[in-house]
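Objective 1b. Sequence-to-structure analysis of Aminopeptidase N.
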Amino acid sequence: MRAGIAAASIVVLAIGGCTASQDKPAATSSESAKAPTAAASFTPGAEGAGDPYFPTYGNGGYDVAGYDLNLRYDPASGQLDGTATITATATQDLSSFHFDLATLVASKVTVGGQPATSKADGNELVVTPAAGIVKGTGFTVVVDYGGKPAPLTNDALGVGGWLRTKDGAFALGQPESASTWFPVNDHPSDKATFALAMAVPDGVEAISNGVAGERSSAAGWTTWRWSENKPMASYLATVVIGQYRVQSSTHDGKPMVIAIPDSLPADGPAAQSMALTGEIADYLVTLFGPYPFDAYGGVVIDDNRVGYALETQSRPVYGNVFFRERSNPTVVAHELAHQWYGDSVALERWQDIWLNEGFATYAEWLWQEHKGEETTQQAFDRAYRDFDWKTPTGDPGADKIFGDAVYQRGAMAVHALRKTIGDQAFFALLKSWPAEHRDGNATTADFIAAAERASGKDLTSFFRAWLESRTQPARP
């Protein structure tokens, strides 16, 4: 995520680029599940994933493999209705489990095809299956639900999630978002595939993540289909509904979808910036290795509530605040860099967000240098001279995860690492890190270990100074 700029800025929370997990096995139906044994001790899954910064985000007791949503949204009334089919595997002997689901109401829930009991508990949907689920068993949950979705608000981080507009809606935000429009394990440590069928009135567009499927129309409604087949953190799921010019093409043999609001000129700064998506992605491939997803693109939102950009997987979303005066390829470089650093390699805990934002900000510096503008050293020197070092990059606190200590100091730490280990080891690390953790999750400790392997150096004191100290580190 790139924080918004100037007075128009708001940072979203939806509430807003080793031990890594691998691709998850497909869940099996509970009908073929393991039979309970006398040793099984069924207990409820935790109501939170236990993140040190946001302990109630996400849930425990299961691991989601995929979300398949079949939804219908009426812009005139703001009503969202549909069905979520969720495949998962129990990570403990489960007597019940939670999904994150805010403001919407479940009308029917089945587990393994059998009726289950469900109840709302604040922003949680608690599901009790007809029988306990044995650890290691794959199961499928089907939730029929609906209502008028609403955003979530955090006093420190802002407002986001599902936001209604005059001609549609959009769902967007970090660090929590998905729970405002579908039942979900809403924490990046549980990545899953994602499929969406969204029915909207004819003449209204609905853009989401991944590869577009076949559209169909019936009785005045058009169903737009999208699928993201690479594991995705839940906050990276998005849908944008309204009046958009949707441009479909291919780049490097993969589909590219760009969406610009009808309210913006077809040849204006936003469109000019989006047109650079392929060129910028190609440059980043030379730095980070093969592009990690099956589709490219971008969506611009012309809404004053969106003073930020977010690296929604395969198709970043940009507030028009970045394009009001001129083309802005720098923000495009930032969000595309996240496709490697933050999306393909996702966080295990929010404290380590510098692994996302420090590298995406450094990608801005690299792009500017590539285009003959400010060099990375000049960008470092400018930031280093004027910075307030009181907040540590590696532990900024929950209310400062979108602050300068994460973005600017994070980028300075990346540049300082480059100067410390040398260009050869550094640029090899830029490629080996996303390759080794592709489609998974990782931590700061994992990255330190990777940097030490790449350089052959003990970097303990270096990372302590650049990630933990509250005073200015020595210039490398």
